[in-house]
Structures are given as structure tokens and as C-alpha cells.
Amino acid sequence: MGNLSILKKLVFESDNKACFIERERILSRLELEMADYKSDDKYAIILSKILGEVSTPILDYDYFAGRVVEALPDENMKAPNWLLFSVGHMSFDYEKLLKVGLKGILEEIKSNATKKGDTKSFSFARNAEIVVKAIKDYAQRYSKAAEEKGGSKMAQALKVVPFEPAYDFYSALQSIWLIHMIASCYVGSRDYAFGRFDQYMLPFYEDAVKNGKTKEELTELLAGFFIKTNEICGRNTHNYKCKPVLCQASKQYVNIGGETPNVFSSVVLEAAKLNNMAQPQITVLLKPDTNEQFAKDVFNALSVLTDKMNIYNYSQIVEALIDKGIEKEVAKDFTYSACCTFDLNFHSFRLEYFTPVPQIFLEVFHKNEYNSLDELLYAFKNALKSDIQNYVDTTQKGFDQERARRLFVLDSLLLSDSTVECRYACDSNAKYNVLNIFCPGVATIGDSLMVIDKLVFKEKRYSYCEFAEIIKNNYENNEELLEEIKNFTMFGNDTDIDRYTVMAGNVFLDAVDAVEHRDNHHLAAGFYSLERENSSKFEVGATPNGRKAGEPFSENQSPTYGADKSGITALLKSLSKLPFDRTVTGGLNLTFSQKMRPEILQALVVSYFQMGGFHVGISVIDRETLNDAMVNPDKYKSLTVRLYGFSEYFTSLPKWQQIAILNRTEYSI
Questions:
Q1: In terms of CB atoms within 10 Å, which end of the chain has fewer, N or C?
Q2: φ, ψ for residue 84 (rounded to 5)?
């Protein structure tokens, strides 16, 4: 276990101003050398040159080979270099990699290219061959470095993987890590995920146990693998003091559970507890009626990991996907690949769009005089549909542009539909292209609808134009009205008032359903803001729910800050009324003032899912500790908090985000 502690310490001692210096120097040179090179294999050749020149460092306490040399950027160096990059945001087909290796994948591509017989297919195969050879040679160089270091197990594995199939538990993890590191660090992008990790790793775990390895040995090895995910992304956030690397603040998601959780699912949880760092995020796909032992293991882990775990209602999401026309077997194999964002595992990469819902609502609200709430909602739906349609049209047009092909280097080798079609994922030719369409501020809209309905249409205390003018003027000279509105019962207290937020949610989902798109594009809708409730707050004028211009609006699926006053049971009942049966993405943060016992967490989450709840992420806030961390950050380098769909180091957050976390409603039981 001592090696785990040393590796953790190295992560916290690393310099967040450092870049991947070898990558940057090589690309700076190649940018000049290959400026006039126009062939389709340009970016595959660039990657091959990088992998052929970078060093192969191994530390005495490394469990797995594969780390990148870091240093401060050279003078006048523009790091990171964008000559080579990927869109990222995807889950590779690691099951295929482990079964057939890059060699088998390349053979499949060549065979399919021959069958298709067209120029693009042969170009795809040529690029694939360049990349596979480069990775094979890189692994062989790493094998020699490991041998010189005395790491016989590491050296043996790298003689085989990832070119050949994995042959045991260790070689499987080594194969995955080398590919993951190359994609994240040398190609460069954020949010590569590990897919349905417990499913494809189970056979290797079972064989290891049969061959005499203990659960404890394998758990420590897996924890060593998990620690590696913290080495590639730095400890800063994507929006503050960014590290000069393309995988800056990357989120590493490990999905477990689903239809058939297994014995290795619980080993993953144990390894995550040993690791207990911001990365990876353990994403549990939980059936409300899952087997008793797995449920017990999940909530025991959650009581320890808290902000480092996500739990989704697996059964409900599968049903929603099938209702949307996704084939059952594909639907059952869905994953999350970062930030509560959905994808269909290794079929394609995902895109995401945060619809400016509060801004659109205010534009519609002030545009005309409406005679009923139904009229306002009809106009709101059409405006939402128009905005989302414009995003989808623009995205689809971008896919058609030949320049998109420059993004191909490695990704399409490990997206199975791409290897079948011999086409780049970013060309939009895959069978499934996932567009996450998010609705920020749903509770702010719902509460605003309630206030309009009450004061204008039901009680008729104001004409529509009078009330709209008050809102437009930011409640100026209307302080009594403002205080009255703030004292109204809002969404989150399990009252009839919740129906307005349900109404707002359905209007958004109706707008998404009305958008026209290609048959192979799938719109994944959900209630999620990431950080927009704060970062976009100054773009949003006063809203009818008593929120003044420039103040935060509601976060993700949650009520407006402070509006939920009736306890956690009432909160969860309110949330379960949202139309989650029509969503496949989104997130909820539940904040507790102290750590909760596993059996209490299990009762809460399972009951919530049985009512129709969608997702739960847990935060435990000790306000005294967080306030001290704001004053004395050096004392709290390892302190993590749940940000939105993931964990971050509290002292790495900008002050406004630290304050936003402190403003969340706390619960105790």
C-alpha cells in the first residue's frame, strides 16, 4: 500500500503550470516542418512522430507504465499546441481492444475497406495502420525501459499489449492505460471514459482469482490504475487557472452496475475507496431492485467517497431510450462519459448544448402581452425549439465540412461503428451520434410561471404589461412585492406548486422532441446546468420568481437556492415529479451537513428511484472547514467537493464557485 501513498503525494506536489513539454516541443517543430504537407495521413504521421520521439519514464513505485514528462513551457511557447487534437468526450470499445488487440482491429478495418473499395475507406485504413504501428513501437520501447528498470511483469505485458490481446488482469489494465494516456495526453482532449468497466474486466478478474491472486492484491492493483487517472489532468478546474494541456481538468468516468452487476463491480468500489481522489468518478448504474449485496456495497462506498460517486436510475433510463427508438441491446449498454453527460458507449463521441433557457424565457416573456399561461408556454416552446433547431442544424452542417476529418488520429480505431464503416466519427457517419441537449434553470422557470399565473392570470392584481414592466425594471420601487414573492412556496416542498416546474420541464422536452434532425443523430435531453446558473447569471435579467438581475438561477435539477424548506423527503418527492421518464441525462446534488450512514443513504436513494428519480450525487459540507480552506488553501490541497456531475479540489475553484457551494441547502437526518 506504500506505493499508493507515494503516487498520491506526487499528484499533489505536481505543478499545475506545467505542460507536457516533450509533446509541445515536437509539435512546435512539426508545425513548421509539415506546414505544406497536404496528404490525408498528415495527422496520423504527426502522432507517429510524437510517439517515436517522446521518452518512456518509469518510476520505482509505478504500478503501470505510461506517464508524460512535464515542465514549465519554454519561453514564447504557446502551450498547448493545437496542431494535433481530438474532440474527446467518448467511451472507447475497450472490450474489443482486450479481446483482439489493435492488431485485430486493424485487420477488421482493412477487410472492411477492401469490401467497400472506395478511396475514403482505403485512406481510413492507411491512417489506422500508421497509428497502430506507432503505438506498437511505443509500447515496445516502454517494454525495454521497464526491463531495464527491473519490472519484468510490466515489460512482459508491454511486449504484447495493446497490439495483441490482453492475456491476464494486469496486461488488460496496462493495455487500457497506455491507450487512455496517449489519447488524453499526446493526441490531447478531455473526458475519455472507461465505459462499462466492470463488464469487460470481469473475465480477467475471475481468471486471476482462479490462478491464485487474492482479492486484496487485485484491489490494490486496480487502485494503482485509478491513481494514474489523476496524473493526466492536473488539479485545476476547466474554468480557473487552467493547466496548459489539452486534457486539462478532464473527467474520468468508470461505469459499473447496470443490468448485471457482478463480483468485480464491488472490487471497483473497494479500489475507489483505496484511491479516494478526485479521479476517477465512479458512476453506478443502479436498478432500484438490484441484488442486495451490490446495493450494500454501493452505499457503503458512497458513505466514504461521497462527492466522488454518481448514481443513476438504470432501469428508467433504459426504458426512456427504448421509447426513443434505440435498440434494446444498445440501450442497455449506455454509459456516462463525464459531467453527467450521456453517450451510447463506444458507438460515437458525444456533443453537448446548454440551451440558454432562462434567457429565452425572458425574451419571450417581454416580447408580447399574453392572455393566458398557455399562450406564454406555447410561445416559449416555439422559441426553445427554434434555438435548439439552430444548434442542431449548425452542428450537422459542421459535420459535413471536410475540415472535420483533421480530428482523426486515434479515436476512430476504438469506436466500433467507425471501424465497420471505415469512416471518421467526426464525419457524422456513425449509426449513433449523440447530442446532449441541456435545460439549465428549470426550477427558476417553473417558479416564475407560478408567480405569473398567481399574480396576473388568477388573482389579476396586475395586468400582464404592468407586471412585465416591474420585472424589466428589476423590481425597482417594488420592494414589498419582491419580499412577498420571495415568501411564496416554491418548487421543492412537495406541494401542488411543483406542477409549474413539471410544466416547464415538459415544455422544454416537447421543444426538443419537435426538433428535426438526421436519423442517425439522437438528442439526449435532460435538466442540467453545469455552472451556467452562476457563470451566465449576468446575462439573465430579473425573473418573475423574485430573482433580481445578475443573481444565480437554479442549479441542475435542484430548486432555487434556499427555496426547499420542508426537508429532504419533501425535496425528493418534488424532484420525482419531474418528467424524468423522458430524459437520459442531467444531475442532482444532495448536500448533507455530515456524513450519512450507508443504510440511510440506501433508503433515500432507492426510495427516490422507486418514485421515478433520475440521479443522485452527494456532497458533505463542513462549512467551518470550507471557510478555513478559503483563507488557508495550502492546508487543504486534497479537500474535494462535489461540483456538479463530478468532484473537484475545493482550493482550486474560483471564489465565486466556492461561495456557490457554500450557498447550497444543507440537510441532516
A1: N
A2: -125, 130
Query: What confidence category does residue 429 fall into, taking pLDDT thresholds of 50, 70 and 90?
Result: low
* Grid cell digits, residue 340: 453527467
> Interhelix angle for 373-400 vs 357-367, to 10°?
130
Cβ neighbors of 32 (< 8 A, separation 6 or more) are none
* Of 572, 573, 540, 568, nearest in space to 554 by CA: 540
Instruction: Note the pLDDT tens digit of each residue in 325-373.
Output: 999 999 999 999 988 999 999 987 888 999 999 999 999 999 999 999 9
- Look up the pTM and report it: 0.95
What are the C-alpha distances in Å from 548 to residues 359, 543, 564? 14, 7, 19
Q: For residue 309, with 0-12 CB atoms within 10 Å meaning exposed, 13-18 middle and 19 or more buried, which class applies?
A: buried
Which burial class, exposed, middle or buried, applies to 404 when counting CB atoms under 10 A from its CB (0-12, 13-18, 19+)? middle
Q: In sequence order, which residues have a C-beta less than 8 Å from that of residue 496 and are 6 or more positions away?
A: none
**Cβ neighbour number for residue 322 with a 10 Å cutoff:** 14
420 Cβ neighbours under 8 A, 6+ residues apart? 108, 112
Cis preceding-peptide flag for 544 (omega within 30 of 0): no
> Alpha-carbon distance 369 to 464, whole Å?
6
Please state, in angstroms and as integers, the Cα–Cα distance from residue 506 to each residue in 29, 403, 521, 591, following that order: 53, 37, 21, 26
List Cβ neighbours of 407 (8 Å cut-off, separation of 6 or more): 43, 85, 86, 87, 424, 426
**What is the C-alpha separation between 638 and 652, in angstroms, rounded?**
10
Question: pLDDT tens digits, residue range 210-222?
Answer: 999 999 999 999 9
Angle, CA 545 vertex, CA 543 and CA 548 arms, to 5°: 45
For 647, list phi and psi in degrees, rounded to 5. -105, 145
